[in-house]
Amino acid sequence: MVLFRRLLGILALASAVFAQSGPVAIINVHVVDVVKGQVVPGQTVVLAGGKIAALGPVASTPIPAGAQRVPGDGRYLIPGLWDMHVHLRSDQAKPNTRIADENAATLDLFLPNGITGIREMGGDLADQIFQWREEIRTGKRSGPRILTAGRKLDNDPPAWAGSIGVKTPADAREGVRQMKQAGADFIKIYFRQTPVQVVRAVVEEAHRNNLKVTGHKPSNLSIQEFLETGIDGMEHAQYLVATDRADYDRMNAEFDRRRGKDWAADALEQQARLLAMQDDAEGTKVWKAMAGKQFWVTPTIHVSSQVMQDGTRNYDSDDRRRYIPPSIWASWDPKGFRKPIEGRALTLRKASQKRWDDVTVAANKAGVPMIVGTDCGSNNNYTMPGWSMVEEMEALVKVGLPPAEVLRMATVNPAKWRGELEREGTVDPGKVADLVLLRSNPLESITHTKEIEAVFQSGRYYPRSELDGMLQRAESKRNF
Ligand SMILES: [Zn+2]
Q: Environment class of residue 388 by beta-carbon count within 10 Å: exposed (0-12), middle (13-18) or buried (19+)?
């Protein structure tokens, strides 16, 4: 049976080469209006020229002659998903070994999971990623549309291989210009601690070059001061935890005085202090300010439990292992780069995590614009490219966000972030035909986004058999 399925997959892949790109009609489908969070039943959706050419009730929507007919009966059509926090990079534990081909192989894991676009957050493979982005854009390679930060901007020396080390505002401007020239779509910062002038310089130079900036909040800056730099957003829900600004600055000054001494503050003390200092009234003000500025937050909830837990779950017999290149799988070994934590560190981590979950929901309710990102890729333990998308969406629903909101965060909001809502991000006439056909209603359960019948990318139809063929190809390529 398995062999037969694989054979079908390979045949489907072979036929894909000759696939016609003429009109496609999805007939009698439930269209999911992600903006309203509603289902519109009994629709015919016609795709032509890479776009949604027509959409309307079955009885009154003509099917163009020669169109390929896709039965939509009982199925649900959503916009293509975007994973807005992906890493294509080498194993940080082996910084001298580049694993570019292995990362390229994982590009085949996104479309079969309904992901038509990814936002790549920087690593050591920038040059290759620019090339893959181009190959996918021009149809030479199948895979999700890629937006990339290129190389991250970080302290000097940087924490991650491939990042640009920055000490001064002048370095910051130079780094931004370098990434602009290389073709980066946005700027990612990863400063652990840096003068606020450096962040301001990044933001000013990026905006001058029409690039958005997102990333980590340096720990020496309060969230209020960070927001004032004019930065466009941030990654990871943990920075949504707000404290009184003066209290935060005092804590920082104290940490500065203690730095390098025997009584320096360690990571655990910092975590405990932040837990103790959380101020919800202040949070409400901060989140309102974020909402007013259209400050984008990618919560990345699922990954934090993946990479920093007790390491008891064993993935050796996980089904998806066969699709992941061994060098990437090895980078997830809990004995490697990210080790399990225990004792007081684990207790604190769990308490912190609960806060991050809670502030994600509170900030979302306050109107902070959010996008789904999974932080998948090398080094982030068992956060698997493609499959992590539904896991992150399930995690967001589990902490308390409505499925309709999570679906918006994965479709229409990424289009807003890209400034492309006019032409992408919803199932509406005139929009780019990036779509996913599901067997069940995702508004009832976000887990239904797993049940993928077909994917359409710029109008190109990938039936299930072809998606399986893609997975098959990933499996056959995984031995390097
Ligand atoms: Zn990341």
A: buried
pLDDT digits (tens, 9 = 90+) for 335-345: 877 888 888 99
- Torsional sign, CA 27, 33, 37, 38: negative
Number of domains present in the structure of the chain: 2
pLDDT in tens, 19-44: 446 899 999 999 999 999 999 999 99
Distance (Å) from CA 236 to ligand 1 centroid: 8
Identify whether residues 114 and 222 lie together within a single domain.
yes
Q: Is the pLDDT of residue 386 over 90?
A: yes
Distance 121 CA to ligand 1 centre (A): 6
Residue 422, domain member (yes or no): no
Cα of 274 vs centre of ligand 1, distance in Å, is 22
CATH code, domain carrying 48: 2.30.40.10
Q: Which residue has the tokens 């999971």?
A: 113
User: Do 185 and 202 touch, CB atoms closer than 8 A?
Assistant: no
Query: What distance in angstroms lies between residue 380's CA and the mean position of ligand 1's atoms?
Result: 8
What is the whole-number distance in angstroms between the Cα of residue 392 and the centre of ligand 1? Answer: 14
Which residues lie below 8 Å from residue 331, measured CB to CB, with a gap of 6+? Answer: 91, 92, 93, 337, 378, 379
- 308 CA to centre of ligand 1 in angstroms: 14
Domain that residue 276 falls in = 81-417
d(CA 423, ligand 1 centre) in Å? 28
Average pLDDT over residues 142-170: 96
- pTM exceeding the 0.85 threshold for the entire prediction: yes
Distance 56 CA to ligand 1 centre (A): 40
